Amino acid sequence: MPPLIVGVPTEIKDNENRVAITPDGVRELEQHGIQILVQSGAGIRSSITDEEYASAGAEILSDVEELWARSGIICKVKEPQASEYPYFRPGLVLFTYLHLAAYPQVAAALLEHQVTGIAYETVQSADGSLPLLAPMSEVAGRMATQIGAHLLERAHGGRGVLLGGAPGVRPGRVVVLGAGNVGWNAAWIAAGMEAEVLLLDKNLDRLRWVDQIHRGRIMTLASNRGAVERAVAGADLVIGAVLVAGGRAPTVVTEDMVIGMKERSVIVDVAIDQGGCVETIHETTHSDPTYVVHEVVHYAVGNIPGAVPHTSTYALTNATLPYLLQLALGGEQAELSEPAVAGGLNTFAGRITHQAVAEALDL
To answer: Mapping DSSP to helix (H, G, I), strand (E, B) and coil, where does residue 86 land?
Structure first.
């Protein structure tokens, strides 16, 4: 079978500045005989011009409807927005971050139109790792601490705490919930800023690994209800980084815990794209990123890496390109026979095909 045409539209989610492919990615696909359609202006906010894409071999289209209609695979960064649902059709392959547990309306649209939905966040390697989630988790984790430090400034609603403290003054306390890629990177940056850092996780082997690398600079704690409650109560900044691949994030911080936090302390819940791990959280946007509940500042932007699109776009394409190449060359055979790609399959022929997603959506 001939290779599928790959279409890359401009992202339209609020302040989503990334694009799903780089010119180097286009060139790599083109070398394998794959035609690539890129919407005009798709890369501008990632500092990539139409001319760079065209020079690499892409066809530049200004008509987004034509791009969707001609493409066998639509490669995006974030879940499709409601205005894009009319472009859906049976058999279309959508390759992007879907997070269907948090966005049931997207799941409903994919099922109704029998779109094959392959989610970056559930593509899983043989060793159990999530190779397409990892690069954005690393970016989001590192940014979470940076954002939290900014929000702790009094002018931005916080307690007026400098994470690194000052000579003779105690540093800020950062509590990170979850020691996966997001949590570890958040803790690492916080430690680099000379904050007092507590990292909690149920996986003791993961905590041992962190402890060996950081030699005690990051305090590791086994996560349970009591440990979380005590840690959160003493925190200046709480970073939620709890992940259930494909499923909804569990509530780890209850409303009572939030009530017990310091006045003007800050919560950054990176798990919001899976529903969030804080009971008082709801998704926000880059244009309106925070709100206050029980005198605690809440930040829950669902596409944190979109704020640093140049870095994020290149990091994401480095990871997704081999899988996109497999899909374009192999079509449905690649979707079903390649184990890692099959793990990413969330919807197919009008049905949910991922167990954790099905359970989260009660389907």
So the answer is: helix
SS3 content of the chain, % helix, strand, coil (to 5): 40, 20, 40
How far is 300 from 292, CA to CA, in rounded Å?
Answer: 11
Amino acid at 355: Q
∠ CA 242-145-100, nearest 5°, is 35
Per-residue pLDDT 10s for the chain (363 aa) are: 678 999 999 999 988 999 999 999 999 999 999 999 999 999 999 999 999 999 999 999 999 999 999 999 999 999 999 999 999 999 999 999 999 988 999 999 999 999 999 999 999 888 888 899 899 999 999 999 999 999 999 999 999 999 999 999 999 999 999 999 999 999 999 999 999 999 999 999 999 999 998 888 999 999 999 999 999 999 999 999 998 776 788 999 999 999 999 999 999 999 998 889 999 999 999 999 999 999 999 999 988 998 999 999 999 999 999 999 989 988 666 556 667 778 899 999 999 998 888 888 888
Q: Per the residue annotation, which of 99, 113, 298, 354 is the catalytic one?
A: 99
273 is catalytic: yes
Indicate the pTM of the whole model. 0.85
- Mind listing the domains of the chain with CATH numbers? 6-130+308-361 (3.40.50.720), 134-306 (3.40.50.720)
3-class secondary structure, 219: strand
Distance, in Å, from the CA atom of 313 to the CA atom of 310, rounded to the nearest integer, reads: 5
Instruction: List phi, psi (to 5°) of 331.
Output: 60, -140
Is 269 annotated in the active site? no
- Selecting among 113, 201, 273, 354, the annotated active-site residue is 273
